[in-house]
UniProtKB/TrEMBL annotation:
<dbReference type="GO" id="GO:0016788">
    <property type="term" value="F:hydrolase activity, acting on ester bonds"/>
</dbReference>
<keyword id="KW-0378">Hydrolase</keyword>
<feature type="compositionally biased region" description="Polar residues">
    <location>
        <begin position="61"/>
        <end position="72"/>
    </location>
</feature>
<feature type="region of interest" description="Disordered">
    <location>
        <begin position="50"/>
        <end position="145"/>
    </location>
</feature>
<feature type="domain" description="Succinylglutamate desuccinylase/Aspartoacylase catalytic">
    <location>
        <begin position="192"/>
        <end position="361"/>
    </location>
</feature>
<dbReference type="GO" id="GO:0046872">
    <property type="term" value="F:metal ion binding"/>
</dbReference>
<dbReference type="Pfam" id="PF24827">
    <property type="entry name" value="AstE_AspA_cat"/>
</dbReference>
<keyword id="KW-0862">Zinc</keyword>
<feature type="compositionally biased region" description="Acidic residues">
    <location>
        <begin position="132"/>
        <end position="143"/>
    </location>
</feature>
<dbReference type="InterPro" id="IPR053138">
    <property type="entry name" value="N-alpha-Ac-DABA_deacetylase"/>
</dbReference>
<dbReference type="InterPro" id="IPR055438">
    <property type="entry name" value="AstE_AspA_cat"/>
</dbReference>
<protein>
    <submittedName>
        <fullName>Succinylglutamate desuccinylase/aspartoacylase</fullName>
    </submittedName>
</protein>
<keyword id="KW-0479">Metal-binding</keyword>
Amino acid sequence: MLFERLQKPSPRILLIGLVIPWLSAPVLAETDSAKASKKSEVLIAELAEDESVEDVEHSAPLQTKGKNNTARQPAVPQGGAGIDTPSAGSRKVAPNIDLKQVAPPPEAQVSAPGDTDADAAESEVMATEAVAEPEPEPEPEPEPEIREGEVFTLLDNDVLPGTSTRLAWTPGIQIAGLSQTTPVLVVNGINAGPTLCLTGAVHGDELNGIEIIRQTMYDLNPEKLSGTVVGVPIVNLPGFQQGSRYLPDRRDLNRHFPGSPDGSLADRIAHSLFENVIRKCDMLVDIHTGSLKRTNLPQLRADMNNPDVAEFTRGFDRMAVVHSSGSAGMLRTAAVEAGIRTVTLEAGESHRIQQHQIGAGVNSLTSLMERQGMISRMFVWGDPEPVYYDSDWIRADHGGILFSEIELGASVSEGEILGYVSDPITNAQHPIRSTTDGRVIGMAVDQVVMAGFAAYHIGTEAEVPGE
Ligand SMILES: [Zn+2]
């Protein structure tokens, strides 16, 4: 055998009986895998997918019963704009900033060394700067009358309805005088509605999401928005600055949510973000990319065993949807357990800015906001709306140099050659064949691989549980 199929094919049924065009949205159900359970923790770290290969393989198959449902479904959602953070003592009104304006340079943020209340001080500095910097704007607090929308309180700031602003979050784990704040963008609509949160670069080397959030949020008009959109474009700022997926302590932040105030560095950062920002959300889209030189077709990873989450995925236009019940410590998993409808959006590969992938992400988030009644645009939905997939990873069975014959998104047939692993010394050519009919929803870029490397992620259309 030149390749190894890791998972038993699960029954797949055509959900939408159409030939899927390129960017249609299927849901891939990750089936369980007995073999995968033998993999060690080390291997998970090495593979380092957001939703790693193992996470996908560990996921429960799509079953209507959904054994985890009870645990994951708090009766009362804990998210929502009305909840104040414990520290909501000295709040201030956030300045109204046109997010399309060029932001002030961040130098002044360092101007409060020795200040014990670093959070507040930095937020304040940032806020005052933001008002002062774009000097030509003679808008001294437009004082918008509070209509239907409500004041949205975040990070000790009151964001008035019909305004947008930049806030600053700091997990408080650095040397106070040197600490950097992480920008948090808020657009609070003039009308009432749900709170949608967007997080990017939880893995610091995953860049597409940063741009997806920028394009999505800067295009929102708070005067026409119903509800609130909160964006944290770069959650893992230290990792981002070093081009690293990990935190400075080499931990994967996306295995530490919801975190803890007295745990490891990763625990503390996760806890701070979760308590101060994430709990404010009704809905969360955590944006990632493939890792370790793998690229992903724009797709959602969602726990389709959770009816609320499954329903949530319907709002995303032209997205493949892959079932993944998620691993402990993931932001997605923790947020769902806190009653927040959450999916992971995967787009492209790490270390790169990919316009096509970014465009797909922005399009899909726009469709989501329309579906949720937050914006009203003449949105044209793609032909099949989300398409749901079951999925299998196909691994290289030999070490060597991988050369792919197919492209991301291609439809493939069982037995079709996906690529070759070429042994540079013996000149042996080992073909890797598809084990099933389906669509290439993720794949490794050409590179040196070892035997066992997960090279192709093949999705086959599946039905949503309970339908
Ligand atoms: Zn990631």
